[in-house]
Amino acid sequence: MKIAISGKGGVGKTSIMAMLALHLHNQRGMEVLVIDADPSPHMAQTLGIKDIANLRPIADMRDLLTERSGKTPGSPFYNINPKIDDLISRFMVGEDGLRLMVLGAIQTGDSGCACAENTVLRRLLAKLILSPTQTVLLDMEAGVEHLGRGTIAGVDHLLVVVIPANSSVRTAQKIQKLANDVGIPRISFIGNLVRDSDDEQFLTEALGARPIACFPDSAEIRKAERNQEPLSRMAELFRSLLEEMVTVLAL
After folding, report:
1. pTM of the predicted model as reported, rounded to 2 decimal places
2. Rg for the chain (alpha carbons), in Å?
């Protein structure tokens, strides 16, 4: 299954995706490929992957991306079927069934549209054929722009992380609408930074649907992030919540 996660900036989507990846790998014995498509990637640290020195973000290779997407100099058109077979192995790090690939984004002031890397990502998602013991988890950039580009149209399930705040709910609802527009078959909400039953009720009423899991406002997660520690212990601590998610995801 191919699962993407999205939400307003700062809602904790990367932490939740990392804990889900660790849970699926450590508790369910699944092979997990995490694709970090956030413009400010730090999934390697969150997962505890050691060999990040060998990790080359695809977006750092602008010429290769342009070549793969088939763009002719001066032309606005891109090949929608770029060759990506070798990218699957060349740009992954990790071992023992838990691997990471960082898409990233061009982050210079004059870099313009990130169309080339998004074309490659769409093709990558379309090409990957998974067995029942394999899962791809895609950590998207915050907000809604990636849905406007149709980058994640090939995923099976979109998780939208939302905190008990009106601004977060509005972004989540916009993400839900755009996800429906691009034909993502399943969309679920994940509550985060939830302190009590009032927060849960607020989210359920504001979203018009109960989140499939609600993670608490956790000082332990904040401390681990500040200390640049992987979230392995946090995944164990919140095992029951992650199992609730896995049940709904039917993994």
Report:
1. 0.84
2. 18
